[in-house]
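call fold target=Phosphatase NudJ
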Amino acid sequence: MWKPNATVAAVIERDGKFLLVEERILGARKLNQPAGHVEQGESIVAACVRETFEETAHHAVPTALVGIYQWSPPERPELTYLRFAFAADVTGFDASAQLDDGIEAAVWLSRDEIVARSAEHRSPLLLACIDDYLAGKRYPLALLRDFDAATREAAP
């Protein structure tokens, strides 16, 4: 049975540079936003907060939805990713945090530096999210209605 993978990504800008991760995928260095899968029982916004911290050691607060993207890797067309990309603000950094396996470093790069490293992009979604962010695309977080929130809050 086909089912898309729900993923999140954080678009975080500071002084004209974007917070990205350098990671190893099948031995090759790749660039991506802090991103990952939504886990069972987790809201989409909470997944963005968690993934950003796990991959960069930065605490972040999503402020707006930049866009929702659908993509299937050409080498694995049976896979489909639905990415919810969020504009987010950094609210802190934990230098003692250990980054997720496979993450080599969190880096701050300008759009020009990101374009210059296009051969390392994990997917075309990296630049698409940044360009949409730079174009001012912002949608209210209220678009995402979490019907499981009451259940999570009531759990012991």
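return ok
The domain at 5-154 is CATH 3.90.79.10 (Nucleoside Triphosphate Pyrophosphohydrolase). The radius of gyration is 15 Å.
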